[in-house]
Write a structure and sequence with these properties.
By secondary structure, the protein is α/β, with parallel strands linked by helices. It folds into two domains: 214 residues, Spore Coat Polysaccharide Biosynthesis Protein SpsA, Chain A; 67 residues. It has twelve helices and nine strands. Strands 1, 2, 3, 4, 5, 6, 7, 8 and 9 form a nine-stranded mixed beta sheet that branches. Helix 1 links the parallel strand 1 and strand 2. Helix 1 runs parallel beside helix 2, helix 10 runs antiparallel to helix 11 and helix 10 runs parallel beside helix 12. It is globular. The termini are far apart.
Amino acid sequence: MNESVNGTTISAIITTCNRPVSILERAVRSVVSQTRIPDELIIVDDSSDEINDHQEMAEMLSRYAGKIDLRYIKNACCKGACYSRNKGIQTANGDYIAFLDDDDEWTKDKLYLQEKVALKNTNAVLITGYIRVVNDEDGKTRIYNRGWEYEGSVLTKILGNNFVGGCSAPLLKKSTVLQCGCFDEGFASSQDYDLWIRLAEAGDFAFVRDVIVDYHMHPGNITDDFDRRIKGWKRIYRKYNRLFKKYPEAKCCFLDMLAVNAWECRRVAFAFGMLGKSIRTCGFDRELLRTLIKMCRISLKHAVGRISTSVWIQ
């Protein structure tokens, strides 16, 4: 594996399962096109079925094998995203690890900007940045985590709200990831959130104030499945109950986040339940007011949508 001039090495890891080769290639291309090309690219295929033509996959991989140290690993059977990511970690040789989901893509300076920060802040175990969410149906975009540029000791911040986002954004110090136990394979969702909390207990975070990844929203996203998200968040709440008891403000932020997401999905009873728990913990504070404003905006958006649909039908 080739080291960069400063001696730091980075392993890029893409986990994939049943993704059309054309979409997977978009992710691979964004890795190979980096201004700071990673020292290796590991693709872990979680036993994709016959949705993909094996010849098409082989041809795609051959197009990039000469441009980067490329390894393709296929699981014998479907093991899940956490297992595949952990296999990637165990296979990686780099000092730092950068994951990329197979339907996302990095901006071209992503690794360059993160490595620059990592070299200046050797205590940082996770370096993240702005996530641009792209709606594949209408092309609209938004920045997921603008206003959440938290750095240093961020345990209470990440405990209350996953400002890092998914796996495609951060650059991770491999030694600390191993120390923290990698991904918890018992999680069906929020496995990234779980790891970020453990990393925040272990060291500092840093933030790049640039867009570093395009996260594509489409009907197949797990994050669009509210019931699966709730299962993940409940597991987070149970696993870190000791921390939520120690940091009640973080607990209230977490409950408010659940209320907003439930309100967005029209789960009214669940939303009010979370608000009730938040009020019992922290009372009527400023964060609660902000949550109520967000919910009012969502209600207005829903109302406008209903009116627009009604007009269109007429």
